[in-house]
Design goal:
The chain is built from 1 helix and 10 strands, in the order H-E-E-E-E-E-E-E-E-E-E. By secondary structure, the chain is mainly beta.
Length: 117
């Protein structure tokens, strides 16, 4: 792997604006109009969201992440992709470096909705 340069420095206040939470992936389903996207139904404890993730071609079986907890950014604006609305972003480690991606997830069960940071 060729290591990417470190991105420009940000302030702590910039980082504090990003709301990262633990959610449990309840269901993974196909997005028919996309060759990359899968639709994740994610439980954040007090509510459920739909989050689209480009994992269709990254994983042999995208449904293998059902039932797992992972980290998500939850304060991004909603975005329409392939006719579906995404309400956040999945943290998936490795994709940007062209590695087989893996979830960013807690080492033990933690309540859904718990904040990272």
């Amino acid at each position: 792997m060729k290591h990417a340069p470190i991105k420009d420095e940000i302030t702590f206040d910039d980082f504090a604006k990003v709301d990262i939470r633990v959610g449990q992936i309840v269901e993974v389903s196909d997005v028919a109009k996309s060759v990359k996207l899968m639709k994740l139904t994610v439980d954040f404890g007090d509510h459920t969201r739909t989050i689209l993730a480009s994992i269709k071609q990254e994983r042999e079986n995208p449904k293998e992440i059902e039932g797992k907890q992972a980290l998500f950014v939850v304060n991004l604006p909603e975005r329409k992709m392939a006719g579906e609305i995404s309400q956040g972003m999945l943290f998936d480690i490795g994709y940007e470096d062209k590695l087989t991606p893996c979830l960013a997830c807690p080492e033990s069960d933690i309540p859904n909705g718990a904040r990272a940071g």
